[in-house]
Known about the structure:
Radius of gyration: 19 Å
Oligomer: single chain
Largest sheet: 4 strands, antiparallel
Strand order of the largest sheet: 4-3-6-7
Number of strands: 7
Structural class: alpha+beta
Shape: flat
Distance between the termini: 39 Å
Helix content: 25-40%
Strand content: 15-25%
Amino acid sequence: MEKLGTLLLAGMTDDSTSLDSALSTAIESVAALHVSTCDVGNPGTPSATVLALRVGAESVEWLVLADSTIIFDCSDGLHVYTDDRVSRVNRSQHEAAVRSKVGTEAHERDVSKLVEAQRKIRNTADGYWVAGADPQAAREALTGQIPLNNFRQALLLTDGAARLHEFGLADWERILEIVATGGTDGLIAEVRDAERQDPEGQRWPRYKTSDDATALRISIPAHDLVDG
Length: 228
């Protein structure tokens, strides 16, 4: 999915192109590169979450697709946007998967059943959306804008990096405080520490002990926000 990110970034440089349009074009281009050698229509085709942010002259545009979060720290408070649609579907399979102990055969079986059920409704109107081979997914992304004069900083988190919130160990304000003092590495270190305390997922039910975790903090120096 590195190629997807490269093409998305290239499309985002054109301010006249919306973020979802840039993502749609990037998805379509990547799919075209593989259509002759891969079954890109297969529900199990590689896919990715997408977080995008673009700072313009008057606003900060954002996009979230597939199980990730953007936290905006603004002069009027926090604005948090999460695409949690995957967690709203296949509830019976989800509950079975998180009920069994991580690392057991029963857990592996239950997670496999969940994945199979999710693939059947991936990138459909009745399911959830993720960046795979279907450019329509980009049109289903959550998008919006924050006035630039209201913006202070933003924190972009994959679901694995947001686990302190998922576990009920920190609210969004506290997560920003952790990043302010220890950086994004400090945040992920605290996530990993919590996961080690509950390796079987009994205190904090989940699909696996640790998940991929990516966090990115973006801020704009105050002098750059002054007119002229």
